[in-house]
Amino acid sequence: MCGGGEEERRRIAITLAAVLLLGIFELGEGELKGERSKVSGIIIPGFASTQLRAWSILDCPYSPLDFNPLDLVWLDTTKLLSAVNCWLKCMLLDPYNQTDHPECKSRPDSGLSAITELDPGYITGPLSSVWKEWVKWCIEFGIEANAVIAVPYDWRLPPSLLEERDLYFHKLKLTFETALKLRGGPSVVFAHSLGNHVFRYFLEWLKLEIAPKQYTQWLDEHIYAYFAVGAPLLGAIETVKGTLSGNTFGLPVSEGTARLMFNSFGSSLWMMPFSKYCRADGMYLKHLSGRIRKGHHTYQCEQEEFQSNYSGWPTNIINIEIPSIRGFDAYPSVSEFSRTNLSSMECGLPTQLSFSAREISDGTFFKAIEDYDSDSKRILHQLKKSYHDDPVLNPLTPWDRPPIKNVFCIYGIDLRTEVGYYFAPSGKPYPDNWIITDVIYENEGSLVSRSGNQVEGNPGAASGDETVPYHSLSWCKNWLGSRVNITRAPQSEHDGSDVQVELNVEHHNEEDIVPNMTRSPKVKYITYYEDSESIPGKRTAVWELDKANHRNIVRSPVLMRELWLQIWHDIHVNGTSNFVTKAKRGPLRNEDCYWDYGKARCAWPEYCEYRYIFGDVHLGQSCRLKNSSADTLLHYV
């Protein structure tokens, strides 16, 4: 019996090795069905989620620590604390041409180690862990080392320079092609945060590299599914804070230093908020000032942009006091608003102006403060050169559904998220010349100020993930079909008693889908929106995870469990439905089993049993999956 149990556990491990996307599949007309070929998982990390290493020799005066080739720069907190000026030289880029500092240059590290922990160490490692838990899951389930591929990039650069300096998109294309040849199957793409913008740009760049008739064929052969995790599809409000006052992200630096560094990166504008109503295509486009002119470097806005408030966002993103009212004639989009308020002002007194997402992404806001902020000229230069005039894509435009067969959009909701700021002059020199006087948050369907007062506006049905607003995250609901099946289930293991389902819910484009479902106050749910009717040959799903933080979602055991089960369902020969069942969720790993002190036994006795192994230090550690638990996977076919 002992030998049979060991054989059963081995069979479980082999079976689960197929679960994360990287298992054994047979390809038939672009779909995974059997057990011959294998697929790869390709990870595109987010902003500041890749290690940068020195590629110079830099002597740091007044510090025992110097920078030598291959020394860790991002993120070495020891050198940051002891030699911050040296460290900044290795981090900063020229704000106009994005070249390195004359004394030090940094380049992104390669491989999985570049994205698992940014600052490895006994104390700093867990604090800077990004994809480490993800990789541990792969190892635990027996995934081969060459089946998980990280594609780090220099997250400081704007999209065009990633290709111009590092040939990043050429290398990414070769990565997909090499993975297909090596593993015998297409890849599954996991992108987090800014990594989703990188992948979007790659898809547009690919159109210029491949003949139009071969583009869709290449995608079908090389990419099986795309999982967009925490994607800021319409930008992120925190980018504005980083640009004007600095965002330290918990680093031991001043906000002024953080602003100086952030604004030297061309990528700082890549996640600027923008309007869902404005695009940058077509021959004759409507300029924001109202004139019509020819060219592809201007926006074409729908009438809703000018008829609705706040560019479709919950509120105006920037409310700012400027020292005087001079200079408005140079900026038509703000002059009309200003003149309507002249009668109630005394000449020369500070004036408060408000700016929407459109006025930020098109440069109107930065033109309006150009006389009062030395960074505005640099930002306008980068905005035009690297974004508005980008020959491949203006990234500050709304996403269409990627032309990939299987798309899963996943994000957290219902955390307090910043959606607007009030700025005022601080009286200090650059880079500390602006201070935040108030913040507007969205919080579970309402808008509140920092002091807790209710604020008027257009809040969404939920709030964002503490970094990206719900309005931006949920844009991918527009990728769903005309009819949607909605399921809400507890995130933890459950027996199905608290699962709610709505079938064939009608979905209208650019309208949010709000399920008519209840919530238990102490339960965290995951809500699945899945195509009932979709584009032929396409499959789209949106997963909303209650209280899932933007930066930690890639470490969420709930997310990883759902990914395993969805792919397990896809590869099983008996899988008939488009999506894995949500009827119940049982433990998948030994770590999911625990001791129920109230009943004096292991919880989930259907799946778990008490089995002590030498070295266990508490009862919960001795709760392990039953030998026959491989049968539980059949519930998810």
Question: Any overview of this molecule?
Answer:
It is globular, with a radius of gyration of 26 Å. The protein is of the alpha+beta class. The strands form eight sheets. It has a nine-stranded mixed β-sheet. A five-stranded mixed β-sheet has the order 15-14-17-18-19.
Q: What's the alpha carbon Rg, rounded to whole Å?
A: 26 Å
Biggest β-sheet: count, sense, barrel?
A: 9 strands, mixed
The percentage of residues in β strands lies in 15-25%
State the distance separating the first and last CA atoms: 28 Å
Fraction of residues in H or I helices: 25-40%
- Strand count: 27
Supply the helix-strand structural class. alpha+beta
The parts where pLDDT drops under 50 for at least 5 residues are 1-5, 8-37, 282-296, 325-346
Mean pLDDT: 85
Overall body shape? globular
Counted by DSSP, the helix tally is 19
- The largest sheet has its strands arranged as 7-3-8-9-16-23-22-20-21
Topology at a glance:
Layout lengths: L1 H15 L7 E5 L2 E8 L1 E5 L7 E3 L17 E3 L2 H6 L1 H8 L14 E3 L4 H4 L7 H4 L4 H9 L7 E3 L8 H8 L1 H16 L3 E6 L1 H16 L2 H11 E7 L8 H7 L10 H8 L15 E2 L4 E3 L5 E3 L5 E2 L1 H5 L10 E5 L9 H9 L10 E5 L1 H5 L2 H5 L6 H14 L17 E8 L3 E9 L8 E9 L4 E3 L20 H4 L9 E8 L9 E7 L18 E9 L5 E8 L10 H15 L23 E2 L4 E2 L5 E3 L12 E3 L12
Parallel strand pairs: 3-7, 3-8, 8-9, 9-16, 14-17, 16-23
Antiparallel strand pairs: 1-2, 4-5, 4-6, 10-13, 11-12, 14-15, 17-18, 18-19, 20-21, 20-22, 22-23, 24-25, 26-27
